User: Fold this.
Amino acid sequence: MLGQVRIENLTKTYLTRQRRGLFKSEKKPVEALKGVSFEIHPGEIFGLLGPNGAGKTTLIKCLTTLLLPTSGEAWINGYHLTQEDNLIRASVGCMLMGERGLYWKLTGRENLIFFGALYQLNGAERHRRTDEIIERLNLASIADRTVETYSSGQKMKLAFAKALINDAPLLILDEPTNTLDLPSARELRMVVRELNEAGKTVIYTTHIMAEAETMCDRVAIIDRGQVLALGMVAELKASLGREEVIHIEGVISAQASQAIQTLPGVTQAVRAAVDGRTQLTVVGQNQRALLPRLIETLTAHQAVIQKIAPEEVTLEDVFIARTGRTLADDTRVK
Ligand SMILES: Nc1ncnc2c1ncn2[C@@H]1O[C@H](COP(=O)(O)OP(=O)(O)O)[C@@H](O)[C@H]1O
Ligand SMILES: [Mg+2]
Assistant:
Protein backbone atom coordinates (compact mmCIF):
# COMPACT_ATOMS: atom_id res chain seq x y z
CA MET A 1 0.00 0.00 0.00
CA LEU A 2 1.20 3.50 -0.79
CA GLY A 3 1.24 4.82 2.77
CA GLN A 4 -2.12 5.23 4.44
CA VAL A 5 -2.82 8.44 2.62
CA ARG A 6 -0.99 9.71 -0.41
CA ILE A 7 -1.83 12.99 -2.07
CA GLU A 8 -0.29 14.09 -5.32
CA ASN A 9 -0.55 17.63 -6.53
CA LEU A 10 -4.15 18.18 -5.47
CA THR A 11 -5.75 21.43 -6.56
CA LYS A 12 -9.20 22.86 -5.99
CA THR A 13 -10.52 26.03 -7.52
CA TYR A 14 -13.95 27.25 -6.47
CA LEU A 15 -15.92 29.34 -8.91
CA THR A 16 -18.08 31.81 -7.08
CA ARG A 17 -20.64 34.01 -8.69
CA GLN A 18 -19.96 37.67 -8.01
CA ARG A 19 -22.71 40.15 -8.56
CA ARG A 20 -21.79 43.20 -10.56
CA GLY A 21 -24.58 45.71 -10.75
CA LEU A 22 -28.15 44.53 -10.79
CA PHE A 23 -28.21 42.07 -13.67
CA LYS A 24 -24.62 41.29 -14.46
CA SER A 25 -22.71 38.59 -12.67
CA GLU A 26 -19.43 36.90 -13.35
CA LYS A 27 -17.62 33.92 -11.91
CA LYS A 28 -14.56 34.57 -9.85
CA PRO A 29 -12.11 31.73 -9.23
CA VAL A 30 -10.80 31.10 -5.71
CA GLU A 31 -7.79 28.81 -5.68
CA ALA A 32 -8.28 27.06 -2.35
CA LEU A 33 -5.67 24.33 -3.00
CA LYS A 34 -2.70 25.07 -5.25
CA GLY A 35 -0.96 21.71 -5.66
CA VAL A 36 -0.78 19.89 -2.35
CA SER A 37 1.31 16.72 -2.03
CA PHE A 38 2.21 14.61 0.99
CA GLU A 39 2.01 11.18 2.48
CA ILE A 40 0.63 10.03 5.82
CA HIS A 41 2.06 6.95 7.48
CA PRO A 42 -0.01 4.30 9.26
CA GLY A 43 -0.29 4.92 12.99
CA GLU A 44 0.58 8.58 13.09
CA ILE A 45 -1.37 11.64 14.17
CA PHE A 46 -0.83 13.95 11.26
CA GLY A 47 -1.58 17.63 11.81
CA LEU A 48 -2.78 20.15 9.27
CA LEU A 49 -1.99 23.53 10.78
CA GLY A 50 -2.91 26.80 9.14
CA PRO A 51 -4.92 30.00 9.64
CA ASN A 52 -8.57 30.39 8.70
CA GLY A 53 -8.79 30.29 4.93
CA ALA A 54 -5.65 28.17 4.47
CA GLY A 55 -7.57 25.41 2.69
CA LYS A 56 -7.72 22.79 5.46
CA THR A 57 -11.44 22.08 5.21
CA THR A 58 -11.29 22.04 1.42
CA LEU A 59 -8.53 19.44 1.56
CA ILE A 60 -10.48 17.34 4.10
CA LYS A 61 -13.61 17.54 1.95
CA CYS A 62 -11.62 16.31 -1.05
CA LEU A 63 -10.07 13.45 0.93
CA THR A 64 -13.45 12.33 2.25
CA THR A 65 -14.97 12.50 -1.28
CA LEU A 66 -17.45 15.26 -0.39
CA LEU A 67 -15.84 17.50 -2.95
CA LEU A 68 -14.23 16.69 -6.27
CA PRO A 69 -10.74 18.14 -6.62
CA THR A 70 -10.02 20.21 -9.73
CA SER A 71 -6.90 18.19 -10.49
CA GLY A 72 -4.42 15.84 -8.89
CA GLU A 73 -4.71 12.40 -7.40
CA ALA A 74 -4.94 10.75 -4.01
CA TRP A 75 -5.12 7.31 -2.46
CA ILE A 76 -6.77 6.77 0.91
CA ASN A 77 -6.32 3.45 2.68
CA GLY A 78 -5.05 2.15 -0.65
CA TYR A 79 -8.16 3.23 -2.58
CA HIS A 80 -8.12 5.69 -5.43
CA LEU A 81 -9.86 8.97 -4.64
CA THR A 82 -12.14 9.22 -7.66
CA GLN A 83 -12.38 5.61 -8.82
CA GLU A 84 -13.08 3.94 -5.48
CA ASP A 85 -14.92 6.63 -3.57
CA ASN A 86 -17.40 4.18 -1.97
CA LEU A 87 -14.58 2.14 -0.49
CA ILE A 88 -12.95 5.31 0.82
CA ARG A 89 -16.13 6.47 2.54
CA ALA A 90 -16.51 3.08 4.24
CA SER A 91 -12.92 3.08 5.50
CA VAL A 92 -12.78 6.59 6.95
CA GLY A 93 -14.34 8.03 10.11
CA CYS A 94 -14.80 11.72 9.67
CA MET A 95 -15.81 14.75 11.70
CA LEU A 96 -16.57 17.67 9.46
CA MET A 97 -18.83 20.68 9.88
CA GLY A 98 -19.25 19.70 13.54
CA GLU A 99 -22.84 19.90 14.72
CA ARG A 100 -24.26 20.67 11.30
CA GLY A 101 -23.85 17.03 10.31
CA LEU A 102 -26.32 15.82 12.97
CA TYR A 103 -30.08 15.34 13.04
CA TRP A 104 -31.35 17.70 15.69
CA LYS A 105 -34.79 16.07 16.02
CA LEU A 106 -33.24 12.71 16.86
CA THR A 107 -31.60 11.80 20.15
CA GLY A 108 -27.86 11.33 20.36
CA ARG A 109 -28.33 7.57 20.47
CA GLU A 110 -30.69 7.59 17.48
CA ASN A 111 -28.16 9.65 15.52
CA LEU A 112 -25.42 7.11 16.14
CA ILE A 113 -27.67 4.16 15.25
CA PHE A 114 -28.78 5.96 12.10
CA PHE A 115 -25.22 6.65 10.95
CA GLY A 116 -24.31 3.06 11.82
CA ALA A 117 -27.05 1.96 9.43
CA LEU A 118 -25.64 4.24 6.71
CA TYR A 119 -22.34 2.44 7.14
CA GLN A 120 -24.28 -0.81 6.73
CA LEU A 121 -23.56 -2.17 10.17
CA ASN A 122 -26.19 -4.82 10.98
CA GLY A 123 -28.72 -4.18 13.77
CA ALA A 124 -26.85 -5.87 16.59
CA GLU A 125 -23.54 -4.39 15.53
CA ARG A 126 -24.75 -0.80 15.36
CA HIS A 127 -26.40 -1.03 18.78
CA ARG A 128 -23.23 -2.52 20.24
CA ARG A 129 -21.01 0.20 18.70
CA THR A 130 -23.43 2.91 19.82
CA ASP A 131 -23.41 1.66 23.43
CA GLU A 132 -19.63 1.37 23.40
CA ILE A 133 -19.13 4.91 22.11
CA ILE A 134 -21.69 6.43 24.49
CA GLU A 135 -19.83 4.82 27.36
CA ARG A 136 -16.39 5.79 26.14
CA LEU A 137 -17.25 9.44 25.55
CA ASN A 138 -19.35 9.78 28.72
CA LEU A 139 -22.48 10.60 26.78
CA ALA A 140 -24.88 8.44 28.82
CA SER A 141 -26.57 11.35 30.58
CA ILE A 142 -27.54 13.08 27.32
CA ALA A 143 -27.78 10.15 24.89
CA ASP A 144 -31.57 9.89 25.07
CA ARG A 145 -32.34 13.58 24.65
CA THR A 146 -32.90 15.16 21.27
CA VAL A 147 -29.85 16.91 19.89
CA GLU A 148 -31.67 20.26 19.72
CA THR A 149 -31.50 20.36 23.53
CA TYR A 150 -27.71 19.95 23.56
CA SER A 151 -25.21 22.71 24.30
CA SER A 152 -22.80 23.44 21.44
CA GLY A 153 -20.08 21.50 23.27
CA GLN A 154 -22.35 18.48 23.61
CA LYS A 155 -23.18 18.64 19.91
CA MET A 156 -19.49 18.69 19.04
CA LYS A 157 -18.95 15.68 21.23
CA LEU A 158 -21.71 13.80 19.46
CA ALA A 159 -20.25 14.81 16.09
CA PHE A 160 -16.99 13.27 17.26
CA ALA A 161 -18.86 10.14 18.41
CA LYS A 162 -20.36 9.86 14.94
CA ALA A 163 -16.85 9.71 13.44
CA LEU A 164 -16.20 6.57 15.50
CA ILE A 165 -19.32 4.61 14.53
CA ASN A 166 -17.78 2.64 11.65
CA ASP A 167 -14.59 1.85 13.60
CA ALA A 168 -12.50 2.99 10.63
CA PRO A 169 -8.70 2.69 10.59
CA LEU A 170 -8.39 6.35 9.57
CA LEU A 171 -9.97 9.22 11.52
CA ILE A 172 -10.22 12.60 9.85
CA LEU A 173 -11.04 15.41 12.27
CA ASP A 174 -11.57 18.96 11.07
CA GLU A 175 -10.95 21.38 13.97
CA PRO A 176 -12.65 18.99 16.40
CA THR A 177 -12.13 21.16 19.48
CA ASN A 178 -13.54 24.30 17.89
CA THR A 179 -16.24 25.73 20.19
CA LEU A 180 -15.41 23.25 22.98
CA ASP A 181 -14.62 24.58 26.45
CA LEU A 182 -11.14 23.79 27.77
CA PRO A 183 -11.98 20.67 29.83
CA SER A 184 -14.04 19.16 26.98
CA ALA A 185 -11.28 19.93 24.49
CA ARG A 186 -8.74 18.26 26.74
CA GLU A 187 -10.96 15.22 27.12
CA LEU A 188 -11.46 14.93 23.35
CA ARG A 189 -7.73 15.16 22.71
CA MET A 190 -7.17 12.43 25.27
CA VAL A 191 -9.63 10.10 23.52
CA VAL A 192 -7.97 10.84 20.16
CA ARG A 193 -4.61 9.89 21.67
CA GLU A 194 -6.04 6.66 23.09
CA LEU A 195 -7.59 5.75 19.75
CA ASN A 196 -4.26 6.46 18.09
CA GLU A 197 -2.44 4.26 20.59
CA ALA A 198 -4.97 1.54 19.81
CA GLY A 199 -3.82 1.71 16.18
CA LYS A 200 -5.86 4.36 14.39
CA THR A 201 -4.24 6.82 12.04
CA VAL A 202 -5.49 10.37 12.59
CA ILE A 203 -5.60 13.49 10.46
CA TYR A 204 -6.14 16.45 12.77
CA THR A 205 -6.68 19.95 11.46
CA THR A 206 -6.35 23.04 13.62
CA HIS A 207 -5.46 26.70 13.47
CA ILE A 208 -4.17 26.55 17.04
CA MET A 209 -0.43 26.12 17.21
CA ALA A 210 -0.32 24.57 20.69
CA GLU A 211 -2.78 21.89 19.66
CA ALA A 212 -0.69 20.84 16.68
CA GLU A 213 2.45 20.83 18.84
CA THR A 214 1.06 18.65 21.58
CA MET A 215 -1.11 16.32 19.51
CA CYS A 216 0.74 15.59 16.33
CA ASP A 217 3.68 13.44 15.29
CA ARG A 218 4.11 15.18 11.97
CA VAL A 219 2.62 18.44 10.82
CA ALA A 220 2.01 20.10 7.48
CA ILE A 221 1.83 23.87 7.85
CA ILE A 222 -0.57 25.03 5.20
CA ASP A 223 -1.17 28.58 4.03
CA ARG A 224 -3.18 29.98 1.12
CA GLY A 225 -3.61 26.56 -0.44
CA GLN A 226 0.01 25.48 -0.23
CA VAL A 227 2.10 23.39 2.11
CA LEU A 228 4.71 25.76 3.57
CA ALA A 229 6.53 23.21 5.67
CA LEU A 230 6.17 19.56 6.53
CA GLY A 231 7.87 17.33 9.05
CA MET A 232 8.12 16.20 12.65
CA VAL A 233 7.32 19.02 15.07
CA ALA A 234 10.96 19.15 16.24
CA GLU A 235 12.23 19.17 12.65
CA LEU A 236 10.01 22.10 11.76
CA LYS A 237 11.28 24.08 14.71
CA ALA A 238 14.85 23.22 13.81
CA SER A 239 14.16 24.45 10.26
CA LEU A 240 14.48 28.01 11.55
CA GLY A 241 18.18 27.17 11.75
CA ARG A 242 20.26 29.87 13.35
CA GLU A 243 17.27 32.12 13.70
CA GLU A 244 15.95 32.82 17.14
CA VAL A 245 12.78 34.30 18.49
CA ILE A 246 12.07 37.05 20.99
CA HIS A 247 8.59 37.72 22.29
CA ILE A 248 7.95 41.24 23.52
CA GLU A 249 4.75 42.22 25.31
CA GLY A 250 3.44 45.64 26.19
CA VAL A 251 2.11 48.71 24.48
CA ILE A 252 3.76 48.73 21.08
CA SER A 253 2.60 50.90 18.18
CA ALA A 254 2.57 49.82 14.54
CA GLN A 255 5.32 52.39 13.88
CA ALA A 256 7.51 50.87 16.59
CA SER A 257 6.96 47.45 15.05
CA GLN A 258 7.90 48.76 11.60
CA ALA A 259 11.06 50.32 12.98
CA ILE A 260 12.04 46.97 14.48
CA GLN A 261 11.39 45.26 11.16
CA THR A 262 14.00 47.45 9.47
CA LEU A 263 16.76 46.76 12.01
CA PRO A 264 19.66 44.77 10.54
CA GLY A 265 19.52 41.13 11.66
CA VAL A 266 15.72 41.08 11.93
CA THR A 267 13.92 38.73 9.50
CA GLN A 268 10.39 39.28 10.74
CA ALA A 269 8.69 41.50 13.31
CA VAL A 270 5.01 40.65 13.62
CA ARG A 271 2.58 42.45 15.88
CA ALA A 272 -0.57 40.79 17.22
CA ALA A 273 -3.08 41.34 20.00
CA VAL A 274 -2.95 38.65 22.66
CA ASP A 275 -5.44 38.91 25.55
CA GLY A 276 -5.76 42.68 25.18
CA ARG A 277 -2.03 43.27 25.09
CA THR A 278 0.21 43.67 22.11
CA GLN A 279 2.70 40.96 21.44
CA LEU A 280 5.57 41.51 19.07
CA THR A 281 7.35 38.43 17.78
CA VAL A 282 10.81 39.16 16.44
CA VAL A 283 12.59 36.51 14.39
CA GLY A 284 16.23 37.09 13.57
CA GLN A 285 19.80 36.01 14.03
CA ASN A 286 21.92 36.56 17.08
CA GLN A 287 19.12 37.98 19.20
CA ARG A 288 21.25 38.57 22.26
CA ALA A 289 23.38 41.06 20.35
CA LEU A 290 20.19 42.57 18.97
CA LEU A 291 18.42 42.89 22.31
CA PRO A 292 19.85 46.31 23.33
CA ARG A 293 18.97 47.76 19.93
CA LEU A 294 15.45 46.35 20.14
CA ILE A 295 14.90 48.02 23.48
CA GLU A 296 16.44 51.27 22.28
CA THR A 297 14.25 51.36 19.16
CA LEU A 298 11.08 50.53 21.09
CA THR A 299 11.78 53.18 23.70
CA ALA A 300 12.48 55.75 21.00
CA HIS A 301 8.96 55.00 19.71
CA GLN A 302 7.36 55.47 23.14
CA ALA A 303 6.63 51.77 23.57
CA VAL A 304 5.97 50.37 27.03
CA ILE A 305 7.74 47.06 27.47
CA GLN A 306 6.14 44.72 29.99
CA LYS A 307 8.03 41.60 29.08
CA ILE A 308 10.87 40.83 26.75
CA ALA A 309 12.32 37.37 26.51
CA PRO A 310 14.24 35.20 24.10
CA GLU A 311 12.10 32.08 23.85
CA GLU A 312 12.04 28.61 22.48
CA VAL A 313 10.85 28.44 18.93
CA THR A 314 7.22 27.35 18.50
CA LEU A 315 5.41 26.13 15.38
CA GLU A 316 3.74 29.53 15.23
CA ASP A 317 7.17 31.14 14.97
CA VAL A 318 7.91 28.87 12.00
CA PHE A 319 4.73 30.21 10.39
CA ILE A 320 5.62 33.81 11.26
CA ALA A 321 9.14 33.44 9.91
CA ARG A 322 7.82 32.14 6.59
CA THR A 323 4.84 34.41 6.09
CA GLY A 324 5.22 37.54 8.19
CA ARG A 325 1.75 36.80 9.59
CA THR A 326 0.38 35.04 12.67
CA LEU A 327 -1.93 32.03 12.62
CA ALA A 328 -4.70 34.25 14.00
CA ASP A 329 -4.86 36.23 10.74
CA ASP A 330 -7.89 35.35 8.65
CA THR A 331 -6.75 34.59 5.09
CA ARG A 332 -10.14 33.71 3.61
CA VAL A 333 -10.74 35.10 0.14
CA LYS A 334 -14.06 36.92 0.22
N1 LIG B 1 -17.79 26.82 -1.23
C1 LIG B 1 -16.86 27.76 -1.44
N2 LIG B 1 -16.95 28.62 -2.46
C2 LIG B 1 -15.99 29.56 -2.68
N3 LIG B 1 -14.90 29.72 -1.95
C3 LIG B 1 -14.74 28.90 -0.89
C4 LIG B 1 -15.71 27.87 -0.58
N4 LIG B 1 -15.27 27.20 0.52
C5 LIG B 1 -14.11 27.77 0.87
N5 LIG B 1 -13.78 28.79 0.03
C6 LIG B 1 -12.54 29.62 0.08
O1 LIG B 1 -11.44 28.74 -0.05
C7 LIG B 1 -10.38 29.12 0.82
C8 LIG B 1 -10.06 27.97 1.76
O2 LIG B 1 -11.14 27.77 2.66
P1 LIG B 1 -11.19 26.57 3.70
O3 LIG B 1 -10.84 25.31 3.01
O4 LIG B 1 -12.50 26.63 4.40
O5 LIG B 1 -10.00 26.96 4.70
P2 LIG B 1 -9.76 26.57 6.23
O6 LIG B 1 -10.57 25.35 6.53
O7 LIG B 1 -8.29 26.36 6.32
O8 LIG B 1 -10.21 27.75 7.04
C9 LIG B 1 -10.85 30.39 1.51
O9 LIG B 1 -10.33 31.48 0.81
C10 LIG B 1 -12.35 30.33 1.40
O10 LIG B 1 -12.90 31.63 1.41
MG1 LIG C 1 -11.89 24.94 8.10
